[in-house]
Write a structure and sequence with these properties.
Layout: H1 3-29, H2 35-42, H3 46-52, H4 56-79, H5 84-100, H6 103-109, H7 126-152, H8 164-179, H9 187-198, H10 215-223
Helix pairs in contact: 1-2, 1-4, 2-3, 4-5, 4-7, 5-7, 5-8, 8-9
């Protein structure tokens, strides 16, 4: 391999390490993590990161753009599902898990990072701002369609609004954190209660998909 080819190979390897490290650091610590934090996690010098990314927002874009667009496709598929209630339930659970397991993604989607846009080092981060603005509009369209279809089908209570989806999702996300690694399925009880409450009518409560913590388990969790 020529020296130039080796340099290109090394640069590609460094870029892949930086992107992988950024995904891990942002997921665990949120978007407040610095480029120096990411460089350390990737095992490269901070100058290597700055040579590839003019500012942190450009790095955030490269880490999350594909996933944000995948989320839009998931919402669109749910809004067109033949079984509208099944589409609603699947989207609610999948999107909740996506946000719960990645703090950086959660900050982007819920607006926790938008006040920092434009303050990054280097050129204006217009790509990320435009991506988030477009995502907000696109997701709004899909969510409104999904909720309206579910209401028309008579499977969703009529006072529910598309904006309530995020409110309830945040509640389930908190349950995921509460259950932790010892009770990873606990969130599904919260999800079950919420979804049962969204149905317009029923003659008895729906069966929940996960058992409750025993009294002993609850006391053990509170001692940790």
């Amino acid at each position: 391999m020529s020296d130039q080819g080796q340099l290109r190979s090394d640069a590609r390897g460094n870029l892949e390490r930086v992107l992988a490290a950024a995904a891990e650091v942002f997921a665990a610590r949120g978007l407040g993590a610095t480029l120096a934090d990411i460089a350390k996690h990737a095992g490269v010098g901070v100058g290597t990161v700055y040579r590839r990314f003019a500012n942190k927002d450009d790095l955030i874009y490269d880490v999350y753009a594909d996933r944000i667009q995948a989320g839009e496709k998931m919402a669109e598929a749910a809004s067109k599902a033949a079984d509208v209630w099944a589409g609603f339930v699947q989207y609610f659970e999948q999107s909740t898990l996506e946000l719960a397991n990645d703090r950086g993604m959660r900050e982007l989607i819920t607006g926790g990072y938008t006040e920092s846009l434009g303050w990054a080092r280097g050129t204006p981060p217009t790509r990320l701002a435009e991506l988030l603005e477009q995502n907000h509009k696109t997701m709004g369209v899909h969510m409104i369609k999904l909720v309206r279809r579910a209401k028309r089908a008579g499977v969703l209570r009529r006072d529910f609004q598309a904006s309530d989806m995020m409110v309830l999702s945040l509640g389930v996300q908190a349950t995921i954190a509460f259950g932790g690694t010892e009770s990873p399925g606990l969130y599904r009880r919260a999800l079950g209660f919420i979804l049962d409450g969204l149905r317009p009518a029923r003659d008895k409560p729906s069966a929940l998909p996960s058992p409750a913590l025993t009294d002993e388990e609850l006391l053990s969790m509170r001692r940790r």
